[in-house]
Design brief:
Radius of gyration: 21 Å
Order of helices and strands: EHEHEHEHEHEEEHHHEE
Helix content: 40-55%
Number of strands: 10
Strand order of the largest sheet: 2-1-3-4-5
Structural class: alpha/beta
Distance between the termini: 59 Å
Strand content: 15-25%
CATH topology of the largest domain: Rossmann fold
Length: 246
């Protein structure tokens, strides 16, 4: 096994903490766990989803390497639970070459996807790259917190509150906010938003837009504790108008 040098500017002041959920004992304990330790990670290996959840309660994890095909709760279900509970980085691995599994993993929020047999050096490089990206995103969110403004962050998939809290967005919410926040203080018509949603979001029903705006306001307000500055202007559409203290 060869040694590889990585850019550590955005690494934590400790080793990245990695959990590996893989039911194949030989692969997990014989290859992946020692291999990643060799590349400087702090690694915990588990065989079931229940063991993973217990490990996460006992120790804060940064990233998870997650097998798709597991007995009991499958990897996609575990991924969905992780996305609801945390902002952990997730790398999925599978022996199934079917593209549908790859698409499902990414659609449910996986950060990367590798096929078995897994090359440990490639896995280590993937985890280091993911870790750097997570650290940069965290830095950007902290910077947004100091700005005191609502912002779109992490490639527009999160809404950052004035206090810097990240609010995950759905594809339609992202589409709407990108237009409204780019047009600050200028009304955007309902038809303009609908046209954008039809281009960017599959199976969009135009009649749902008022409900989407309503839910987006509630979601943002629940996360921030303050009113989200998205106004409805009768006859004109919608306006994102953030008041700035001088």
């Amino acid at each position: 096994m060869t040694s590889t040098t990585y850019d550590t500017r955005f690494a934590p002041d400790r080793a990245w903490r990695i959990a590996i959920l893989e039911d194949d004992t030989q692969l997990r304990e014989g290859i992946l766990v020692p291999g990643l330790r060799y590349f400087g990670f702090e690694v915990t290996g588990v065989a079931t989803a229940a063991e993973l959840y217990r490990a996460m309660l006992a120790k804060d994890m940064d990233m998870v390497v997650l097998d798709v095909g597991l007995p009991g709760e499958d990897g996609i279900s575990v991924l969905a639970n992780l996305r609801e509970l945390s902002n952990l980085g997730v790398v999925m691995i599978t022996a199934d070459g079917n593209a549908s599994g790859h698409v499902a993993a990414l659609a449910h929020g996986a950060d990367a996807f590798l096929a078995k047999p897994v090359d440990v050096e490639i896995l280590a490089a993937t985890l280091h790259s993911l870790g750097r990206r997570m650290a940069i995103e965290e830095r950007d969110l902290q910077a947004a917190a100091h700005s005191g403004k609502w912002q779109l962050d992490t490639e527009d998939w999160c809404l950052s509150t004035p206090a810097g809290k990240a609010v995950p967005l759905t594809a339609p919410e992202r589409c709407i906010l990108r237009i409204l926040m780019a047009s600050r203080d200028r009304p955007v018509s309902r038809d303009e938003l609908i046209d954008a949603l039809r281009r960017d979001v599959h199976d969009f029903e135009p009649k749902r837009i008022e409900m989407m705006i309503h839910r987006l306001r509630r979601k943002a307000q629940a996360a921030s504790g303050v009113q989200f500055p998205l106004l409805t202007l009768r006859g004109h559409g919608y306006l994102f108008q953030e008041l700035v203290d001088h």
